[in-house]
Amino acid sequence: MAAKKSFPLRLDPTLYEALERWAADEFRSVNGHIEYLLREALRKEGRLPSPKGASRKED
Known about the structure:
One of its GO terms (biological process) is regulation of DNA-templated transcription. This protein has helices at 13-25, 30-44. With 59 residues, it is an all-alpha fold. The protein has a domain at 13-44.
């Protein structure tokens, strides 16, 4: 697995608190939940390469 890229992210405190609650509801860390949300958004828009052998599913 390739190393993950890290970078600073500045968020409005209210936005962070909402993400923190949502992540806790999903049993994820805030960082993990942000990564999940970004990955899902990219997948929905067809901007994330599909894994080899996977068929593309339309939503």
